[in-house]
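Dear U.,

For the methods section draft, I wanted the exact inputs and outputs in one place so we can describe them consistently. I've listed the two proteins in the order they'll appear in the manuscript figures. Please don't edit the token lines directly; just add comments below if something needs changing.

First protein:
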Amino acid sequence: MEQVLEKVLDENRLNSLLGKMVNDVGAAAMGTLIILGDKLNLYKTLAGKGPLSSDELADATNTSERYVREWLSAQAASGYIEYDKDTNRFFMHPEQAAVFAEDESPVLMTGGFYSISSMYHDEPKVREAFKTGKGVTWDNHHNCLFCGVEKFYGPSYRGNLVSSWIPALYGVEEKLKAGAKVADIGCGHGVATLLMAEAYPNSEFIGYDIHEESVNHANHEAAKLGLKNVVFEAASAKSYPKLKFDLITFFDALHDMGDPDGAAAYALKALDKKGTCTIVEPFANDNLHENLTPVGRAFYASSTMVCTPTALSQGGTAIGAQAGRKKLTGVLTNGGFTKVKVAVETPFNLIFEAKP
């Protein structure tokens, strides 16, 4: 008789895993509530006027108290806000306000959940891509993705791009102040391009993106800001005019491209011989086991649902959002750049400087 062996579960290991899953289920459910709190100005109002009861927050935001009461309870249970049981009021510490309520904070995180909502909408498309090996084009993703990318990356760019990233590039800031020609490839809604255009009025900026709706949005934002030194045009990473740019940038975009080596080679041809190319990419180590962290988990998840499908839709390779220093350096050197280095490293980004 064939012997059947029972599986013996390690109770401690099982309980640890179940604890993680309970936490993750709660986090996934909270994503919708974070978007609600952002859109209804619940965080901003609580941060600015708190401590508040559910009645007071509802009155201040013209919302229903019964819904607000449940929302506040979920936020407090998550540790996103604080609850005073003696006064039955809720409030936010400065650190919580910086993450949830302050538009100019470099650590504002609410925007990430807009992009995550698009992943749930796009699950059927990506599931089919898993079966066929084909991709999902950028414009075929749910429209929550495009505003989500802007809202998620914007705070980091506003907090770092002009103040620390550009000054770390050899001779670039001086050129931009004097007057330079700049191309931003894969510009999306143009957050980084507009920041540079505002900071360096003597320079000329052109943002290029394959998504026409994003290009139109970026041009609208430029007009609202009254900027005359920036324009956005629809073009791929291998079709924009070779205007001998002084600076060519790729902000969290190169890993979404089907032919990153080709995009780098094209940039080299479009660059002035004394120019600079910079790419900003998600931070990653070169080995998988070193990226098995909370930050790595978030980037791998986004890469599975967004970056890899987008790159594969272009018929090339997909280096993913966790490419790492070695692979990204290889992309730039394969493209013909001879001087490549990491100019800035943060917990979330690698900023490369590449010269001919």
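Second protein (the one for the lower panel):
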Amino acid sequence: MIRLSQVTKSFGSNHVLRGVDLHVPKGQSMVVIGGSGTGKSVLIKSVLGLVTPDSGTITVEGQDVTQVPRDAFLSRFGMLFQGGALFDSLPVWQNVAFRLLRGSLRRPKAEARAIALEKLRRVGLGADVADRLPAELSGGMQKRVGLARAIAAEPQIIFFDEPTTGLDPIMSGVINALIREIVTEMGATAVTITHDMSSVRAIADQVAMIHGGKVRWTGPIADLDQSGDPYLDQFIHGRAEGPIETLR
């Protein structure tokens, strides 16, 4: 579904991506791990066309992302943002139906609301929250609203940016389970960025580790603990000692 070939991106003297090669199979869940500042978010932004690579190619189902009409292209994606990124002035249902109320995916208001209520139900929220403002919800409920919005337009590809950040272990488990169930039900292709190894093990079919601006290791989740790669081994076990330099 998604293929990156020798993708590079620098910001001034900061060389973030240094020749990334990554293949995300259609209908599978790829989790990208790596330390802070290793380029995980830049990778996602590059696929979406929000950042233009300096070199290399990115294709989605064989189409170069720099050569496709933007609106139609972006309509294929859903996104769960790290901080929720809900519009605080809009009620919950309008947040969920945001894409259905404008642009090429526009639906009649009543239909958009009905879809929003159904997606809220899918993530475990009742119709009673639909007219509340995001500030009236807990962090876990806001994350569920963000997930409902990500799937509202039935996207082919969903990106999850640190989906469990700021949540307690129980709610993190709930969100992980929801993501896994929904991705499987929809048959969607998913790419998740996370530092949370419990999320990795709950969500992933495939795992890729970025280090030094390149994909250091990639493979099925079943091979994660027997990779033989010292960088990956240090990261997944959170060890201070190893080839990845840490500040002391």
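Candidate sentences for the figure legend, describing the second protein: The radius of gyration is 18 Å. The helical segments are 40-48, 70-74, 92-96, 109-122, 139-151, 169-186, 197-203, 230-237.

Thanks,
Y.
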